[in-house]
């Protein structure tokens, strides 16, 4: 064998390396052997950023040449016929035929690609699903490309502007100098985002920055207008396009690398691109600044299929815990019988919870359920997916020692077999039958994923209204904890049923006046509070606490009569005609009159979205409403009841009103939802943060319902900072916004008038820009309606009558009351200017 060839074994794979002394970068004398050595050493930080993504390679078989005489290169999508059969690959259809793209998830594959002179690795902003399909977008990328006369310093300035917009949106940007000319910004996206949606967001962001900084920024791809400016290339979020992978070499005259950087480095006026040898030293010293972007909760999908117990074993030390710990992550178990088994374990850990485990594919797929199995069809409970457990865990009961993962005492609450009805990545439906005389009985349940993927994803556990044959299911008593050393005697007589309690409560309440007057429909209002105050007040109110998610919609009072539901906004305006999926059907609230309180919510992949609700809020024409109702259905999330069976129940404590509401809505249509209640404020805040909800409302469970009153018995804790504002002026647009506007001037009422609160220029869709321009233009006036506007902010402004209320997200208030990093959320037609107050 020639001295320039080696037969090596890497990660259990045999690979022939050839031409190791061949120079691929003539200007620096860098050889193929050095390129392979670089990719071998950088693999631990590079692989997480490309794992699961199809890799398009740019190959230089003869090296890159010099700046004066560059060598030919070509893009390679299809994996070449001579590639080892152990290189993982996934097919993607093209107009010219299906191509097999390599997946780079291990060191042997990475070394093979370097061996065939694949210097550049390019990947899209999505991963394959476990089924081999194209997944949702999981990253947002902005490629900042400097035109003639500008460089990295100007790209860094644009990157900082983008950061000021992205951060208040909850998107944490990470800079990468591309190794070529400019730099990229990456943000991790929440689950459920399509590539089209990511592209629209990136395009909107690019145009917003261009509108504010037209002298330096351009969002159009036209080369003729790019000199002296930085192009924000948003198009690389398209599902069919790729971007240079972090830590990939570049095929430039020098062996530079697409290098993740810190924000402090971007402030350096001598910022430059970095060579591969410098990158290796840098990673040894500071690690990967981009590590958080593609940190995954478990192994890759292919790893998980090969080793389903990988995460379980990694969290436990055999011998230090009494739990069963397999020796191999891919240990297989035979099916347990004709029907798969389940177990529900009561876990007295740092927080009491129940663990639901279902046998599936040789392991116990597991969820932690803080409040246990729902005892009512109207009351869902939160479930959080945990790591798969070995089948031996189905019989485990004991005490996990302090210092070990999951420390605490675990007992078996119930166990048995289940009949699977549906098993998908986002929904599981099954009928479980516990032990004879056990607490579960026979019940049909559904698990519905609401956010995230895999371990730590969030689900709702729902008790179905009917069994698998369509017969109504009965209610059960609430799940309660018992001391771990003993169990309740199943022969003990049950407490009075929920139905009996509700009937007694209704019998003791007065008849409600009918028809309801305007003051009868005035909703009870909450008081803003910090998380610390909410926890303190909840502890003072007594145990258990009461917390509900804040659903980021619009408040609506529902009046139920003659099997139809009419809807009224806080302002007193009727909303009935705008939501036919709720008001145009028999909503299933029974025969008697009722009044309910709730929130109208639009869902974007299971998560409430106020901007999405905007597409419904301002429609008036019947045809437009019907068409948009099909595209963007709205749900009515119920959280209180004022009248039930013709009785005024506002004087009852919230705890009793909730039981009445659950019975009232037990047979309602799917568009009506009674969300779960948390009995731990800390868990409510933690869950809302993880699901990126607007916040929580903490309520005194003993409080009556006080119509039209802002009460300290209801505390609103916002996790996303939002502020209602009054629109007072239009600042003209430039560039791509020349036909609409650049930003809106905002005000918040105070004792001196409408106090200037700054501007908002980002967050608008093209449709919103046009609609708002048409809506605000007729309101034009000559005088300035604001107090305290700096002269510089009044130039060129068209003032408007301060009649329209909107809502913005923001980072903070300045000491002078100006909103920093504000971003448009939408109009609030349900609010009037005199209702707007500054949030604490």
TrEMBL record:
It holds the Pfam family DNA_ligase_A_M. GO terms for molecular function: DNA ligase (ATP) activity. PROSITE patterns: DNA_LIGASE_A3. Residues 317-337, 468-541 are annotated as: Disordered. SUPFAM superfamilies: DNA ligase/mRNA capping enzyme, catalytic domain, Nucleic acid-binding proteins. Its EC number is 6.5.1.1. It catalyses: ATP + (deoxyribonucleotide)n-3'-hydroxyl + 5'-phospho-(deoxyribonucleotide)m = (deoxyribonucleotide)n+m + AMP + diphosphate. Keywords: ATP-binding, DNA damage, DNA recombination, DNA repair, DNA-binding, DNA-directed DNA polymerase, Exonuclease, Hydrolase, Ligase, Manganese, Metal-binding, Multifunctional enzyme, Nuclease, Nucleotide-binding, Nucleotidyltransferase, Transferase. Its cofactor is Mn(2+). It comes from the Bacteria. Residues 627-750 form the ATP-dependent DNA ligase family profile domain. In the N-terminal section; belongs to the LigD polymerase family. This is DNA ligase (ATP). It comes from Microbacterium invictum. The lineage of its organism: Bacteria, Bacillati, Actinomycetota, Actinomycetes, Micrococcales.
């Amino acid at each position: 064998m020639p001295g320039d060839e080696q037969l090596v074994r890497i990660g259990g794979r045999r690979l022939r390396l050839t031409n190791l002394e061949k120079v691929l970068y003539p200007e620096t004398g860098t050889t193929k052997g050095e390129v392979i050595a670089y990719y071998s050493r950088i693999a631990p930080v590079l692989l997480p950023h490309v794992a699961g993504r199809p890799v398009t390679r740019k190959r230089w078989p003869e090296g890159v040449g010099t700046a004066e005489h560059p060598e030919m290169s070509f893009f390679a999508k299809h994996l070449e016929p001579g590639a080892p059969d152990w290189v993982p690959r996934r097919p993607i259809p093209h107009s010219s035929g299906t191509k097999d793209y390599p997946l780079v998830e291990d060191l042997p594959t990475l070394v093979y690609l370097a061996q065939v002179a694949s210097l550049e690795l390019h990947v899209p902003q999505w991963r394959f699903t476990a089924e081999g399909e194209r997944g949702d977008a999981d990253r947002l990328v902005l490629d900042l490309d400097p035109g003639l006369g500008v460089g990295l310093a100007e790209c860094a300035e644009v990157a900082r502007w983008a950061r000021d917009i992205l951060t208040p949106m909850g998107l944490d940007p990470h800079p990468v100098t591309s190794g070529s000319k400019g730099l990229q910004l990456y943000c991790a996206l929440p689950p459920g985002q399509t590539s089209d949606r990511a592209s629209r967001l990136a395009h909107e962001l690019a145009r917003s920055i261009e509108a504010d900084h037209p002298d330096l920024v351009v969002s159009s791809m036209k080369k003729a207008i790019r000199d002296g400016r930085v192009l924000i290339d948003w198009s690389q979020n398209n599902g069919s396009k790729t971007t240079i992978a972090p830590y990939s070499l570049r095929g430039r005259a020098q062996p530079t690398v697409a290098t993740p950087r810190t924000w402090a480095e971007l402030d350096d006026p001598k910022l430059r691109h970095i060579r591969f040898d410098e990158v290796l030293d840098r990673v040894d010293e500071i690690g990967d600044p981009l590590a958080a972007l593609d940190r995954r909760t478990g192994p890759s999908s292919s790893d998980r299929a090969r080793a389903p117990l990988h995460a379980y074993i990694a969290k436990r030390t055999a011998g230090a815990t009494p739990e069963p710990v397999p020796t191999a992550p891919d240990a297989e178990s035979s099916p347990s019988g004709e029907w798969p088994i389940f177990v529900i374990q009561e876990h007295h850990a740092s927080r009491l919870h129940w663990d639901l485990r279902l046998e599936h594919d040789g392991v116990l797929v597991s969820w932690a359920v803080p409040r246990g199995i729902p005892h009512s069809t109207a009351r869902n409970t939160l479930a959080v997916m945990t790591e798969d457990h070995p089948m031996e865990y189905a019989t485990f009961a004991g005490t996990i020692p302090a210092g070990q993962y999951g420390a605490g005492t675990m007992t078996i609450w119930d166990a048995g077999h289940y009949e699977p009805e549906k098993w998908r990545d986002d929904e599981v439906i099954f009928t479980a039958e516990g032990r004879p005389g056990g607490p579960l009985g026979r019940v049909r349940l559904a698990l519905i994923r609401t956010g995230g993927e895999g371990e730590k994803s969030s689900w709702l556990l729902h008790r179905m209204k009917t069994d698998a044959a369509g017969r109504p299911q009965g209610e059960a008593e609430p799940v309660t904890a018992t001391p771990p050393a003993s169990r309740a005697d199943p022969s003990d007589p049950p407490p009075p049923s929920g139905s009996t309690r509700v009937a007694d409560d209704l019998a003791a309440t007065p008849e409600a006046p009918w028809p309801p007057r305007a003051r009868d429909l005035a909703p009870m209002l909450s008081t803003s509070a910090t998380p610390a105050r909410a926890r303190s007040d909840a502890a003072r109110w007594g145990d258990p606490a009461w917390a509900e998610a804040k659903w980021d919609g619009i408040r609506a009072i529902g009046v139920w009569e003659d099997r139809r539901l009419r809807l009224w906004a806080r302002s007193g305006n009727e909303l009935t005609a705008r939501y036919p999926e709720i008001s145009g059907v028999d909503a299933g609230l029974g025969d008697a009159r009722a009044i309910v309180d709730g929130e109208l919510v639009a869902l974007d992949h299971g998560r409430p979205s106020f901007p999405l609700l905007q597409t419904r809020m301002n429609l008036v024409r019947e045809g437009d409403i019907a068409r948009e109702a099909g595209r963007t259905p709205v749900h009515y999330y119920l959280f209180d009841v004022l009248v039930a069976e013709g009785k005024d129940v506002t004087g009852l404590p919230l705890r009793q009103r909730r039981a009445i509401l659950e019975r009232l809505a037990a047979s309602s249509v799917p568009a009506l939802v009674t969300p779960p209640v948390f009995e731990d404020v800390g868990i409510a805040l933690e869950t809302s943060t993880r699901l990126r909800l607007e916040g929580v409302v903490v309520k005194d469970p003993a409080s009556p319902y006080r119509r039209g009153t802002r009460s300290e018995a209801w505390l609103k804790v916002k996790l996303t900072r939002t502020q209602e504002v009054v629109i007072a002026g239009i600042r003209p647009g430039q560039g791509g916004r020349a036909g609409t506007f650049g930003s809106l001037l905002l005000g918040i009422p105070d004792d001196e008038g409408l106090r200037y609160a700054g501007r908002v220029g980002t967050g608008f869709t093209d449709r919103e820009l046009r609609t708002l321009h048409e809506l605000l233009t007729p309101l034009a006036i000559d005088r300035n309606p604001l107090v305290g506007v700096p002269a510089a902010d009044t130039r060129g402004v068209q003032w408007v009558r301060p009649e329209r209320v909107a809502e913005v997200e923001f980072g903070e208030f300045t000491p002078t009351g100006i909103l920093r990093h504000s971003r448009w959320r939408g109009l609030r037609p349900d609010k009037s200017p005199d209702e707007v107050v500054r949030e604490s």
